[in-house]
Amino acid sequence: MNKADFISKLAVEMNTSQQQSREFMKAFQVVLTKAMKQDTPVMLQGFGAFTPWSQKERIGRNPHTGISCAIPARTSVKFKPGKFLLKELNS
After folding, report:
1. Burial 52-74 (b: 16+ CB within 10 A, else e)
2. N or C: which end of the chain has fewer CB within 10 A?
3. Along the 91 residues of the chain, how does pLDDT read in single tens digits?
4. Is 81 helix (H, G, I), strand (E, B) or coil?
């Protein structure tokens, strides 16, 4: 499912217009991004938690040429599903 499909299904589920669903998604992305930049986890009870984590600089290898290169440090995000989401997926 891509973003457009998700917005369409969200609009139907929330009984709102696609424009309102799109605005909701944009707002969610803004809030989540700001929290991750501040190194603050976002925990949605029953759904899951988004947690920022720092990847250290490391040495990688180009698979085509075999030449080693440094991969710079960066911040990434981990998602841990919540209890109710896992229960729904496995019932």
Report:
1. beeeeeeeeeeeeeeeeeeeeee
2. C
3. 999 999 999 999 999 999 999 999 999 999 999 999 999 999 999 999 999 999 999 999 999 999 999 999 999 999 999 999 999 999 8
4. strand
Contacts of 81 (CB under 8 A, 6+ apart): 47, 48, 89
Q: Roughly how many angstroms between the first and final C-alpha of the chain, as a whole number?
A: 22
Under a CB-based contact definition with an 8 Å cutoff, are residues 7 and 25 in contact? Answer: yes
What does the radius of gyration of the chain's CA atoms come to, in whole angstroms? Answer: 18
**Strand order across the 48-55 sheet:** 42-44, 48-55, 74-81
CB 47 within 8 Å of CB 35? no
